[in-house]
Amino acid sequence: MKFTGMILAGVLSLFSTVAVSETFTFTAIPDEDESQLRTRFDKVAVYLSEQLGVEVKYVPVKSYSAAVTAFRNNQVQLAWFGGLSGVQARRLVPGSEAIAQGFEDQFFKSYIIAHHSTKLAATDSFPLLNDYTFTFGSKDSTSGRLMPQYFIESNVGQSVDKIFKRIGFSGDHSRTISQVEAGVYQVGAVNYKVWDTAVEKGEVDTSKVSVIWQSPTYPDYQWTVHSGVDTVYGAGFKDKLTKTLIDMKDKDLLDSFPRESFVPASNSDYEPIERVAKAIGMLD
């Protein structure tokens, strides 16, 4: 009986080792230039691996919808989502949770930017946008499509396809800035963080493109974790992961997002995003 007990203990120990050695994978919506994302999230993977004691791997994706699909299929257990993509993912994976957000994500905002040839100037009241060409970012972007479309239609009283002469979707915020600066589109909607960072780095010619309006605030980006991680990685793993994200203090790592810090988040924080998405027909 003693020998049998030793075998059983050894088998249980083996299974425990296998579970702990399981690679923990995460992804992020491709809202900026791919090389910048790789640099940022490879560093995040190293940080998480050191703190959590498991191998952590960043898995890049080509689109917002691909990030949601990877999460739905459990190809990744954690994702840095925008407000809308997070809502979409959590609707598809019961039990998944928003666990942390950037301090700034509690009150995020969008900018409307315009090419200098439009003669549109910065204004506190909503600008007259009729008959211009306009580009959003990704079709599933919160700050580059969902909220700008909502604010535009609410202020103008018409659908965007009736307001603008032509509508495009650049794919990400960096390309939106480039396209408006080059005059490919006259006006566009962009994530304020990406714009402010690009201007600070001298990557935008502000003699050609400038901010003409900023939106009211809304909740946006967040870390969302898959249901069942405690089963795979051990009891208390989700809480440890949450604490690890909130305790991220490395200035270079935070600046790469860029965020001041990370704070707790919950699914209920993003109910306003879900309501807006339903209101403009982007969610059932």
What is the structure about, briefly put?
Helix content is 44%, strand content 18%. It has 284 residues and is α/β, with parallel strands linked by helices.
Q: Explain this structure to me?
A:
The protein has 284 residues and is α/β, with parallel strands linked by helices. 44% of the residues lie in helices and 18% in strands. It has twelve helices and eleven strands. The strands form two sheets. It has a six-stranded mixed beta sheet, with helices on both faces. β1, α2 and β2 form a beta-alpha-beta unit. The longest helix is centred in the N-terminal third of the chain and has 20 residues. The radius of gyration is 21 Å and the shape is globular. The N and C termini lie far apart (60 Å). About 5% of the residues have low confidence.
Structural features:
284 residues; alpha/beta; 12 helices
